[in-house]
Specification:
By secondary structure, the chain is mainly alpha-helical. It is built from two helices and no strands.
Length: 66
């Protein structure tokens, strides 16, 4: 096998492994399994909740002053 052919085969092999690895991390619903939330989704949800609590607290403090 020539050097360039071996290099191309190795590149295809590593690309396939990279794709498999990335697909394994995707939140994909399989039959009978609930869809798991991604880590980023948890962070966004927590940030949204803290923003909502902050808005409620400022609204509540504004009503108390009135």
């Amino acid at each position: 096998m020539t050097k360039s052919r071996a290099f191309n085969r190795f590149q295809r092999f590593t690309a396939k492994m990279r794709r498999r690895h990335l697909k394994a991390w995707l939140p994909e619903q399989r039959e009978g399994e609930p869809l798991a939330e991604a880590r980023g989704a948890d962070l966004r949800k927590r940030g949204w909740q803290t923003d909502q609590m902050h808005e409620l607290e400022t609204l509540d403090s504004g009503l108390q002053l009135s």
